[in-house]
Amino acid sequence: METLKPVRRIVTGHDAAGKAIVAEAGPLPTVVPIEKIPGTVFHEIWSTAATPAPVGNGADPTAGPLVLPPPRHGSRIRIVDIPPDTDDFLAQGAARMKDAFTQIGDAAASTVKADSPHPLMHRTESVDYGIVLEGAMTLVLDDSEVPLAQGDIVIQRGTNHAWANRSGAMCRMLFVLLDGEYEPELRAALAAREEKQ
């Protein structure tokens, strides 16, 4: 399987006198292959756990278990390498998704059902900016799809969705996730839809 270039992270900070410094420069300390989705790799870059975000010389927030959504009132930035969908994955993927989403720290995010349009359907209560850095991707929603090319940007607002790689080559996407809260009318509509299913 094609391997993409390692991600390099530069973290700035301040010395005791308040002078700007490079606190760290090098490879990411947290790079996690997803066992149940072979070829998928999460590259954890940074996260914040409050708004406004504390600005200082705090510890690396990516040290620790992988977690899909951003922290409450926080943000998360990551790169995800996504391999091409295979016939085996599409046929068997739904059965493995609970384990896959458990590994990425949010089993409840998976919304896959027998009639889902893709085995990776999921939802988080967040606003996510997804940017195609390399390759091509298809955004899959409940009843529509959008092909994406390098440079395309998706603003994903808490919708049920999946990322389908139908290109035959690896795709690398950058995601910035912001903690969110559904508006009351939308929360009610989603709850009613869930009851019907």
UniProtKB/TrEMBL annotation:
<dbReference type="InterPro" id="IPR011051">
    <property type="entry name" value="RmlC_Cupin_sf"/>
</dbReference>
<dbReference type="GO" id="GO:0016853">
    <property type="term" value="F:isomerase activity"/>
</dbReference>
<keyword id="KW-0413">Isomerase</keyword>
<dbReference type="InterPro" id="IPR013096">
    <property type="entry name" value="Cupin_2"/>
</dbReference>
<dbReference type="Pfam" id="PF07883">
    <property type="entry name" value="Cupin_2"/>
</dbReference>
<dbReference type="InterPro" id="IPR047142">
    <property type="entry name" value="OryJ/VirC-like"/>
</dbReference>
<protein>
    <submittedName>
        <fullName>Cupin domain-containing protein</fullName>
    </submittedName>
</protein>
<feature type="domain" description="Cupin type-2">
    <location>
        <begin position="119"/>
        <end position="176"/>
    </location>
</feature>
<dbReference type="InterPro" id="IPR014710">
    <property type="entry name" value="RmlC-like_jellyroll"/>
</dbReference>
